Amino acid sequence: MSKCLICENEYKSFVDFGDMPIANAFSPKEELSDEYTFPMKVGFCKNCNMVQLVDQPERERMFHENYAFFSSTSNYMMDHFKKFANDVSELQELKEQSFVVEIGSNDGIMLQNFVTENIPCLGIEPSKNVAEVSREKGINVITEFFDQSLAESIIIEYQKADAILSANVMCHIPYIHSIYEGVKVLLKDDGVFVFEDPYLGEVIEKTSFDQIYDEHVFLFSALSVSYLANIHELQLIDVEHQVTHGGSMRYTIAHKGAKKVSDNVTKLIKKEKKLGLNSSEAYASFADDVDQIKSDLIKLLKSLKEEGKKVVAYGATSKSTTVANYFGITPDLVECIYDTTPIKQNKFSPGMHIPVLPYDQFHQSDPDYVLLFAWNHATEIMKKEKDYMSNGKHWITYIPKVKIN
Ligand code: JHZ
Ligand code: SAH
Question: What pLDDT does residue 365 have?
């Protein structure tokens, strides 16, 4: 039995992936013999409905000056964050006297939109290399981990915030109570805290098990987020589904009683109860569903190898670390991974050591099959590669089921 990070209730895990490396530890050859691993299991707490990793590596092993994920590698995500910033500007009627704080601002993909509108903003980003890129865009950044004590120092040095924003960061933080206390301190009386994360309902519905890796300690639902907010005298006031990262949810939180609660919240909670996300049964077949994808994909890759086909992968994602390591995808099944991110290139994937090559070489590679590790960006990538893939080359995807396109 393990203790819930939210309510301290005891819970059991429902899926066990075995020992996993750090998802973003793309390493040079000389560092491959010394890889850190941790036991990756996921559980569901019946009391507060939070789905969570049982163990997680210390935060400094994941977020540091060589962090490998740069947000601005997708044009679709650039547009998404422009719209996100715009939605919040309209909601809060932001102006030149307002103040916006983003938790986990990475390379500035969101805040750059406030800078161009002359709306004062501050990024909090502990990974120094990505923070440096945002500084070059004229964004003011504190390179520390956000928590309650940092929030207290921000209100002394700056002011309280009209909006606190965060995307794909809240689900990364096991010390989430300190974050919520920090939000409570930092948020103006009529301020909003708006964040997005991969949505539990879709992870279960699509068996998108690769959303589970070291960085993703929580899979949120409206049920669990409203419980968590309530503990801190905050309130979930709106929810909005997003197509990003394979299915996400945008949650809007305010001080308790400060704003009207949208019908969207009650409707989503009702839907989640109908789907049974508040009961262990919803999670009972998850491990078997993952194993079905595993056996189908490995069978396909082995038969392609026997036929002498050339198989490469596209997108050295964090998610692919779970896929490759749990399924046992070695370089003899998938030759290499092409990726546009310089820091990942000419290194090896965590655990399975598949070579990561610069995207520039993809069009000379002449593969028969391309395994799409960045399946969440399928629309953008398949459009971009349409001509190249047209003469007899095929995509392989595996969420929700193994499919040759
Ligand atoms: P992508 C990361 O997950 C980590 P990952 C993190 N934990 C999280 O939650 C989300 O991001 C937000 C490359 N690429 O977005 C760039 C191309 O090569 O699926 C990236 O390396 N060509 C914070 O890593 C990878 O694929 C392209 O055309 O699973 C995509 O990574 C495009 C669009 C991407 O996130
Ligand atoms: N918001 C961006 C980046 C997500 S990557 C996007 O959606 O694309 C997750 C980021 O959260 C990393 O850059 C990591 O350094 C940062 N992070 C992790 N813990 C944090 C904390 N306690 N406070 C602020 N940022 C944190």
Answer: 96
CB contact at 8 A, 402 and 297: yes
Q: Kindly state if the Cβ of 182 falls inside 6 Å of ligand 1.
A: no
Ligand nearest to the CA of 169: 2
Cis omega before residue 400 (within 30°)? yes
pLDDT tops 90 at residue 391: no
Q: Full-prediction pTM beyond 0.90? A: yes
Pick the residue whose CA is nearest to atom 6 on ligand 1.
168
Q: Whose CA is nearest to atom 11 of ligand 2?
A: 104
DSSP 388-404: HHHTT-EEEE-SSS-EE
**CB neighbourhood size of 146 (10 A):** 26
Question: pLDDT class for 320, splitting at 50, 70, 90?
Answer: very high
Q: Which of 339, 359, 381, 395 to mutate to test the pocket of ligand 1 (most atoms within 8 A of CB)?
A: 339
Q: Taking Cα atoms as reference points, which of 211, 396, 208, 399 lies closest to residue 299?
A: 396
The neighbour count for residue 37, using CB atoms within 10 Å, is: 15
Integer-rounded Cα Rg, in Å, for the chain is 21
% residues pLDDT > 70 (the chain):
100
Q: What is the largest CA-CA distance in the chain?
A: 66
User: Which residues does residue 371 pair with via DSSP β-bridges, in sequence order?
Assistant: 313, 396
The pLDDT confidence band at residue 128, using thresholds 50, 70 and 90, is: very high
Instruction: Name the residue at shortest CA distance from atom 18 of ligand 1.
Output: 339
Tokens representing 352? Answer: 């399975």
Closest ligand 1 atom to residue 104 Cα is: 23
For the CA atoms of 12, 14, 18, 23, the dihedral, rounded to the nearest 10 degrees, stands at -100
pLDDT, one tens digit per residue, over 261-314 is: 999 999 999 999 999 999 999 999 999 999 999 999 999 999 999 999 999 999
Pocket of ligand 2 (CB under 6 A): 63, 67, 69, 71, 103-104, 106, 109, 124-127, 130, 145-146, 167-169, 172-173
Q: Which of 283, 354, 249 is nearest to 29 (CA)?
A: 354
Ligand nearest the Cα of residue 59 is 2
The pair of structure tokens assigned to 226 is 């409203």
